Amino acid sequence: MDSYLNMMEEEFEDGSDSAMDKTSMPIVKYPKTVDPLWYEWDRKAQKCGLRHTVYAVNGDRYTGEWLENLKHGKGTQMWKSTGAIYSGDWKFGKRVGYGTYSLPDPITKEYKKVYTGWWKNDKMWGYGIKFYSDKEYYEGEWSVGKRDGWGRMYYQDGSIYEGQWTEDKPGGQGLFRMKNENRYEGSWKDGKKNGPGKFFYLDSGQLFEGFWVDDIPKCGTMIDFGREEAPKPTQYPIPKIELADPEGVLEEAVAGFESTKE
Question: Looking at the keywords, is Transferase present (predicted)?
Fold first, then answer.
């Protein structure tokens, strides 16, 4: 017996395997880890690439492309509260690029285009056309959702403004043509005639050139301009100006008026 124990001790010291080693080292089995169900649900909810219609809690729906769970690429969005539809380009959840925004007619329920053009940061930005009614629309440049830059506005009454816009109003240099072909050409500010300008009364064959403030001519000169061809000429022609320096007198009047504003 002593010799057997001594042999076992020698084998243990030599590092050799033995039956005793196998029985004294049990194998531990760890349980397989299982991710919570919401991990899988969240993975499936992450949207990327082209997807079918996705509905929001409030009833809005979107059909199109996604990237990192955001609308990105080509897609169509419909808002349930207004029935409005936007179809076009998206970038990281916002309307960016070219697209069309439409609304249903309150009576016929047929969709009518409201705006077609370029977008940036979810607003009308760049060149586009907006329809205010069947006979009234604007085509030109936009910035932050407002008419800004160069543009042409067709009004319901048949008049047209073409020129510069600032903060959704005529501002800068522009031409306003009325339905009867009379027109104003000159400076604008806050949507009104402000500064130097000319008003052509083509129906009577006259021209007023002067200085305007909030649509009111403050000082200037009136002369006949194509009176012979005018459809409704004045009864008598305007007498010739006998001033030696009419332009100097006008400049002095304008300077005097501007000084009163300061």
Answer: no
Q: Backbone phi, then psi, for 51, in 5-degree steps?
A: -130, 160
Which two tokens mark 233?
């000429």
Is 110 strand, coil or helix?
coil
The CB-side HSE value for 106 (13 A sphere, CA atoms) comes to 1
Instruction: Give the angle 163-165-170 at the CA atoms, nearest 5°.
Output: 80
The answer to whether the CB of 198 falls within 8 A of the CB of 186 is yes
Q: Facing residues of 63 across strands? A: 76
Q: How is 121-140 classified by DSSP, letter by letter?
A: TTEEEEEEEEESSSS-EEEE
Task: Give me the residue label for tokens 């309307």.
Answer: 95
Alpha carbon 54 to its chain's center: 25
Residues sharing a CB contact under 8 Å with residue 20, sequence separation 6 or more, in sequence order: 8
Letter for the amino acid at 147? Answer: R
In tens digits, what is the pLDDT along the chain, a chain of 262 residues?
A: 444 445 444 544 454 444 445 455 567 666 666 666 645 655 555 666 677 788 999 999 999 999 988 999 999 999 999 999 999 999 999 999 999 999 999 999 999 999 999 999 999 999 999 999 999 999 999 999 999 999 999 999 999 999 999 999 999 999 999 999 999 999 999 999 999 999 999 999 999 999 999 999 999 989 988 888 888 888 778 777 666 666 666 677 667 656 666 5
Q: What is the DSSP secondary-structure string of 195-235?
A: EEEEEEETTTTEEEEEEEETTEEEEEEEEESSGGG-SS--S
